[in-house]
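Q: Convert this sequence to structure tokens.
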Amino acid sequence: MRPENFFQIDGEDGIARELAPGLTARVFAGDQETVSILRLVPGAQGSRYAHPQEHWGSCIEGSATRHQGSDRMAVAKGDF
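A:
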């Protein structure tokens, strides 16, 4: 049996959300932090959003283009 708040990245835990066609997330909310695991199919596009909380991301596999303000940056496996 797994301890509480211990998850598997490919598991079925968390809150499943579809953010856009081809862009899904599993959200894991704690008392003071939230972790979201996003999956994108090739060619998927999300919409821009903003929030006041600090936000970190890590690319585990593949590549994408990140838009932040007026900046665009290539993101590849291993970037965070």
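The longest strand covers residues 23-29.
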